[in-house]
């Protein structure tokens, strides 16, 4: 749940240039962590199953807990808050002055508590709800590919270790595609193009899973290839670009995106991915397909609504920057 807050930090410390790559450096680690989690689970089950009377799955929880403890302390020490109020001990006075100067140059203002008037203004802003819909539909649609291990288990031909390791191929695809999307979307600045490509990957994969009665290799392809549909790094880079000068809208958008995503994920998978239907979730795969389609539609609506404002603001920033340069000369 701290991911979106960390993304807020990134959007406050850096400008819009190269933002998707920066988002990838953070979010791409989730794919790597899932890969290593599979390897750790396989290793723990092999070496610790039955040790001291505990089954392998309990040892996995213990190991995960031990790993989380130092991460919490590292985060407390390393996260610098905002440029305007940072007290991070690892930042020098010169670093803080540089960060403040850059934040001022970029037009950054410190996020503050919202009053009722500001809350109302944010609530009626169409960009808020369009982005929330785009983000939530895209994230929830990815649930279809998280049941790969259940599919492998149902075949009865793979060991516990193999069931933990094989799905990491999907994580590898996710990592590579996230990097490609981030780099290319930063190069040409065309966020909507690459968000659309990622959504089409998800649509095609969910369509194959919905059909289900297809060759085994094609099902494997759908599960693995579908992992390349995650466009979160691009979406968050796009997010930072659109809300460049709107701190209140940016903060509320992050909060609502988080709330709605976790709210839907708390009950929706239980309704559409029922255990008795595993691994052929007739309803679940179709619902994920619809979510990808809706996410694609809302992405284009969001692009249409925000493009004029973004272009006008970027043009003004160029004029201001040129004016400052002329004054120095």
What does this structure look like?
- This protein is mainly alpha-helical and 329 residues long.
- The protein has one domain: Up-down Bundle (Growth Hormone, Chain: A), CATH 1.20.1250.
- The chain is 77% helix and 0% strand.
- It contains 14 helices and no strands.
- The model has no long low-confidence stretch (mean pLDDT 83).
Summarize the structure.
The chain has 329 residues and is mainly alpha-helical. The chain has helices at 3-13, 19-48, 56-78, 93-105, 116-123, 126-141, 148-155, 160-165, 168-188, 191-211, 216-226, 232-242, 247-272, 282-328.
Q: Give the DSSP E fraction (strand runs of 2 or more residues).
A: under 5%
By DSSP, the count of extended strands is: 0
Order of helices and strands: HHHHHHHHHHHHHH
Q: Give the helix/strand class.
A: mainly alpha
**Form type:** globular
Domain unit count: 1
Total helical elements: 14
The largest β sheet comes out as: none
What descriptors fit this protein?
single chain; 329 residues; mainly alpha; Growth Hormone, Chain: A; 77% helix
Topology of helices and strands:
Layout: H1 3-13, H2 19-48, H3 56-78, H4 93-105, H5 116-123, H6 126-141, H7 148-155, H8 160-165, H9 168-188, H10 191-211, H11 216-226, H12 232-242, H13 247-272, H14 282-328
Helix pairs in contact: 1-2, 2-3, 2-9, 2-12, 6-13, 6-14, 9-10, 9-11, 9-12, 10-11, 10-14
């Amino acid at each position: 749940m701290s991911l979106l807050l960390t993304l807020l930090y990134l959007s406050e410390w850096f400008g819009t240039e190269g933002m998707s790559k920066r988002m990838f450096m953070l979010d791409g680690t989730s794919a790597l962590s899932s890969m290593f989690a599979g390897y750790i689970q396989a290793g723990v089950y092999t070496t610790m199953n039955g040790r001291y009377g505990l089954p392998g799955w309990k040892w996995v929880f213990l190991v995960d807990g031990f790993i989380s403890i130092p991460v919490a302390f590292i985060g407390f020490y390393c996260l610098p808050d905002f440029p305007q109020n940072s007290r991070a001990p690892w930042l020098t006075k010169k670093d803080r002055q540089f960060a403040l100067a850059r934040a001022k140059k970029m037009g950054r203002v410190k996020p503050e508590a919202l009053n009722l008037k500001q809350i109302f203004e944010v609530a009626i802003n169409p960009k808020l709800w369009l982005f929330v819909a785009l983000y939530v539909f895209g994230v929830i649609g990815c649930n279809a590919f998280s049941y790969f291990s259940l599919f492998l288990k149902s075949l009865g031909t793979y060991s516990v270790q193999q069931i933990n390791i094989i799905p990491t191929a999907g994580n590898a695809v996710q990592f590579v595609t996230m990097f490609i999307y981030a780099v290319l979307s930063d190069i040409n600045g065309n966020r909507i193009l690459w968000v659309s490509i990622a959504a089409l990957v998800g649509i095609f994969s969910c369509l194959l899973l919905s059909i289900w009665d297809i060759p085994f290799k094609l099902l494997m392809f759908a599960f693995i290839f579908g992992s390349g549909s995650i466009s979160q790094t691009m979406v968050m880079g796009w997010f930072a670009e659109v809300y460049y000068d709107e701190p209140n809208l940016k903060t509320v958008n992050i909060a609502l995106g988080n709330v709605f995503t976790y709210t839907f994920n708390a009950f929706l998978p239980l309704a559409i991915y029922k255990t008795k239907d595993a691994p052929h979730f007739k309803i679940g795969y179709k619902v994920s397909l619809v979510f990808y389609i809706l996410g694609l539609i809302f992405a284009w609506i969001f692009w249409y609504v925000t493009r004029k404002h973004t272009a006008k603001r970027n043009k003004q920033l160029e004029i201001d920057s040129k004016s400052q340069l002329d004054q120095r000369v």
